[in-house]
Specification:
Layout: E1 3-8, E2 14-22, E3 29-33, E4 37-41, E5 44-48, E6 52-58, E7 62-69, E8 74-79, E9 95-97, H1 102-109, H2 113-119, E10 123-125, E11 139-144, E12 150-153, E13 162-164, E14 169-170, H3 176-182, H4 222-235, H5 242-254, E15 272-280, E16 285-290, E17 298-301, H6 304-309, E18 314-316
Parallel strand pairs: 9-10
Antiparallel strand pairs: 1-2, 1-14, 2-15, 3-6, 3-18, 4-5, 6-7, 7-8, 8-11, 11-12, 12-13, 15-16, 16-17
Protein name: Choloylglycine hydrolase family protein
GO molecular function: hydrolase activity
Domain Choloylglycine hydrolase/NAAA C-terminal: 2-309
Length: 333
């Protein structure tokens, strides 16, 4: 399933963060993709021009679920069940891409959200299965850049276009316009306490702070996660530094992170948050936090050295050991 949000801190630093929720472990690694590559995608080969890093796997070809490129464009893919519409083959003059290859194509070819908005007119998403999941994945995408522009791409027909995302949040189905209309239901929510009414001669005693958010949905549906993420994004104190921003994004995603077993799907398996990622669109860094060791941030910086000297796709293997810092290391009895 998944939840994503963009964020701008007080220093005007721009970030894209997401949870990756699914019932299969992708065994994702941080992978660097060099400039000027030809990728043998599942709907046919495509070329990339720009270097990028993200969560990737190299199975029969390089595939990415999210990442950031050398221009600070961040892209993430999320499930869009019962709404994604693909084509059987590309029409003349357009490039056909398997849906799970869109992230690599976009990161490898877009300098900004505005640039991508022009280029998506020349592609179509083709119904091809992904080897790792053995299905045609129903996907939509969130894109952001260092200007703060944020858009989503929702493939609902043969012609693709970007839709402005004014709240900078995306979850899963229904579509973005439905979610935006739905949050009007919660438009009266506040981080302040609400005054209590008097009933006859009875004056109720307060139950404590937080009454402004009474009724905030707490379940794991995409609808509730969209509302909850918007609430926290709006009311949390805005940090200044990159480190503090990463901490805040971790706390926001805590509210939508799914432990194994808490959300069963129709086939009896369990969706869970296998990783969370944080993309610094100005600092060109990709940071990942795995289910096995929450709180342990593992990061790769898209450096000049990588971009100018590394010519082959390169994986950075991740540690999955739980993080534990013993404060009194002397041996126990």
């Amino acid at each position: 399933m998944c939840t994503s949000l963009t964020y701008t801190n007080q220093a005007n630093g721009h970030f894209l963060a997401r949870t990756m929720d699914y019932h299969l472990d992708f065994d994702a690694q941080i992978m660097f993709m060099p400039r000027q590559r030809t990728v043998n995608g599942d709907a046919g080969p495509f070329k990339t021009s720009y270097g990028f890093i993200g969560a990737g796997r190299n199975l029969n070809h390089e595939m990415f679920t999210d990442g950031v490129n050398e221009f600070g464009v961040g892209v993430a893919t999320l499930y869009f069940p019962d709404h994604a519409v693909y084509q059987e083959k590309a029409t003349a003059g357009r490039l056909g891409l398997a849906p799970h290859d869109f992230v690599a194509w976009a990161l490898g070819n877009a300098k900004s959200v505005a640039d991508l908005a022009e280029k998506v007119h020349h592609i179509q998403l083709i119904s091809r299965s992904a080897a790792l999941v053995a299905v045609v994945p129903p996907l939509h995408f969130i894109i952001s850049d260092p200007t703060g522009a944020t858009a989503v791409l929702e493939p609902t027909g043969p012609d693709l276009h970007l839709i402005d995302d004014p709240v900078g949040v995306m979850t899963n189905s229904p579509d973005l316009n439905w979610h935006l209309q739905n949050i009007s239901t919660y438009g009266m929510f506040s981080n302040a306490d609400l005054p209590l009414q008097t009933y006859g001669n009875y004056h109720p005693a307060t139950q404590g702070p937080g009454t402004g958010a009474v009724g905030l949905p707490g379940d794991y549906t995409s609808v509730s996660r969209f509302v909850r993420t918007n609430f926290l994004k709006k009311f949390a104190d805005v940090p200044t530094t990159t480190a503090d921003t990463l901490s805040l994004l971790q706390l926001i995603l805590n509210a939508v992170t799914i432990p194994k077993g808490a959300k069963h799907i129709s086939n009896g398996s369990s969706d869970y948050t296998e990783y969370r990622s944080y993309m610094d669109l100005d600092g060109l860094t990709y940071t990942i936090e795995l289910y096995e060791n929450p709180g342990k941030l593992q990061q790769v910086i898209l450096t000049k050295h990588l971009l100018e000297t590394v010519t082959e796709p390169t994986e950075f293997p991740l540690s999955r050991e739980p993080q534990l810092h013993v404060l009194n290391p002397e041996k126990a009895f």
